Amino acid sequence: MKKLFAGSLLGVLLLFAGNAAAEIDVAKAEAFVKEVTTEGIEQIINANIPQSEKDARFAKLFNKALDLDFIGQFVLGRNWRTATPAQREEFIKVYRQLNISTWSKRFDEFKGREFIFKGTSPSNSAGQVFVNSVVPMDQGEPAKVVWRVREKGGQYKIVDIIIENVSLAITARNEYTAFIKNNPGGVDALIANLKSKIK
Question: Phi then psi for 111, rounded to 5 degrees?
Fold first, then answer.
């Protein structure tokens, strides 16, 4: 289970430093993450429905819960600044599809699990907070899962998931930066590579 946590997704993101996030309502941020995990468990993981319906429900939940534009800009790193508008749009589209495809198939591995929430921790980024949780394992200590939540315009979105101290957003950013550096095709080559993973 810990391998699932450490090796998955999307990718999702640490953000630009600012003042301590005193302005964010931490209770609402925690309630938002609880709602997301509860919906995932009850309506997707434990639901007795075909995989196609699970995929559709997960896509809806994923798009609602994560700020993909924000995450995409972060994980593409400095290459976001040099990418064309068309490349940015295509990257976000493919990045979204890849993560939906990956996680909708793996969600069943959470069957019988639950997230136990342990309050929040302040962030150095304005409008953000860390929501702390653990997931009991069959053996050993519970896995630590920290959700980075951003509030903008009264809307709460997940922008990174940190599992056992590994940021999925930073991991994706490092992977994509290295790929682009080593491929003459640049951002277009990365997009093609992500498309091949979806297939």
Answer: -60, 135
